[in-house]
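Try this one yourself first.
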């Protein structure tokens, strides 16, 4: 959908999933047995919009009992060391290269637009239901110059061993230069 952003996607996802659950189960509140009907804990899942929206950094700070660096400082060596220390302390594995963005579970997705209100973050969200990721979405970046720079950074990370990093896609950047709308 042209010109939609992460907030539109969140709203559409809530409506779609809520209506889907009603069509399948007849109601928005359902019982779920992750280990099957015979054993384990029963979960009650409520698909009534609006869904609870959590700020990742705020939740991590509260759960881990630490204060994260300001998002605009994440490119510094001190911030990277902080993130490495947190990961090591909690036995969270991250293969090289251990960049800040990889350590933060790729918060700075290479195709996501910068957050309009929070420098250093991107407009991105994930939807989890009963510990399962259902949605991973973002406001698409439509600035060709920013996109090309991010692709260059990704290519450098790939050269350092990050096999998930993107290569430079000149055709995509050219499309952006001609006015490809955010989708």
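Now uncover the answer:
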């Amino acid at each position: 959908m042209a010109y939609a952003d992460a907030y539109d996607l969140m709203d559409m996802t809530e409506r779609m999933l809520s209506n889907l659950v009603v069509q399948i189960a007849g109601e928005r509140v359902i019982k779920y047995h992750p280990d099957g009907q015979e054993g384990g804990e029963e979960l009650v899942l409520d698909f009534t919009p609006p869904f609870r929206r959590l700020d990742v950094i705020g939740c991590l700070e509260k759960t881990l009992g630490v204060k994260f660096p300001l998002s605009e400082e994440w490119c510094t060596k001190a911030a990277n060391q902080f993130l490495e220390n947190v990961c090591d302390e909690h036995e969270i594995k991250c293969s090289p290269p251990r960049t800040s963005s990889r350590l933060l579970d790729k918060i700075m997705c290479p195709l996501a637009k910068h957050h309009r209100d929070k420098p250093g973050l991107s407009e991105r969200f994930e939807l989890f239901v009963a510990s399962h990721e259902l949605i991973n979405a973002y406001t698409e970046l439509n600035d060709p110059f920013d996109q090309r720079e991010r692709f260059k950074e990704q290519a450098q990370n790939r050269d350092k061993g990050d096999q998930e990093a993107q290569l430079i896609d000149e055709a995509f950047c050219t499309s952006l230069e001609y006015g490809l709308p955010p989708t």
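Discussion: The CA atoms of residues 126 and 141 lie 17 Å apart. DSSP finds six helices and four strands in the chain.
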